[in-house]
């Protein structure tokens, strides 16, 4: 089998209701969808992740200009061989950021082809399904004003619980004082309900404020499952300081890339939970490397998921295959990030239609990623 063509679809659309996270206002949702064709008639789909502030054209250009010429004519089943070929060719100007998103999008499409070729879901090729369903947690609590929104966010917590979510992640990083007011309101709104909370500041603070916030929440009597991105990803010693100062588990890694980036993050004991994003860190191939390394350091892997439906499908296959790090009868299992922000094309792009039943999502069992794309939707939102 040979790769005959690679197409990129940079997608973007304006949001009716722009929202803020700690790093800025999000006005558009974007994605880069990758389509790889073969001479066997099998088509693979992938996605290069675009976070809220990232233009989709960067990763699309990297695929078109740098990666496509490298892999046209190659055997798409050579996933490891092609990953290294793409990485080695771009390492001197890539290694992190949008070039790695580009490699991720291509790699996911290659694994989709492999799954379809062998007639099995990708998780089977990764070694099998440790789980066939995963608990979802609601990611929401975005801001429409900025500060002073605690009452509205408390209502949002009740609404997520009412929809069946038993775990949810609160966006913080709008000033330590405001953050603590929010957490107090969310705690009170969920009083007496069995709900698990996480927080995410998207690296809004330096070490001292990050510790102040963590201690402030511990003093509220809220036992967080994790505290995500307390400081900037480059500040690995800062991660370690925050981790040492708090009893709360620290999570991070959505902005880290490949085996090499994770080596530094893990070997310096920066985190309790590693959060590779499959559309960002280097695709399934890089995730395999990262998972093995994280387990060697006794660190749990819980993927970050904020992309469109293609990336959601890829993340479900990955999550299915992740072994438990600390084995016990009641071991901590990975949970699925279920983004509650508006995303106009995510729901229409594929036939996946991510849904949950009482807060649990089933892992698709069809070959490859297990999805069909709607080409009309691709064209409608194409940049
Ligand atoms: Ca995050």
Q: How much β-strand is present in the residues? A: 15-25%
Q: What's the total number of strands? A: 12
Largest sheet: 9 strands, mixed
Whole-angstrom Rg: 20 Å
Small ligands present? calcium ion
Continuous helix count: 13
CATH architectural grouping of the largest domain: Alpha-Beta Barrel
Q: CATH superfamily of the largest domain, please?
A: Enolase-like C-terminal domain
Q: Mind telling me the CATH class of the largest domain?
A: Alpha Beta
What percent of the residues sit in helical stretches (DSSP H or I)? Answer: 25-40%
| Net shape | globular
Essential attributes:
9-stranded mixed β-sheet; 3-stranded antiparallel β-sheet; binds calcium ion; alpha/beta; single chain; 383 residues; 39% helix; Enolase-like, domain 1; TIM Barrel; globular; 2 domains; 13 helices
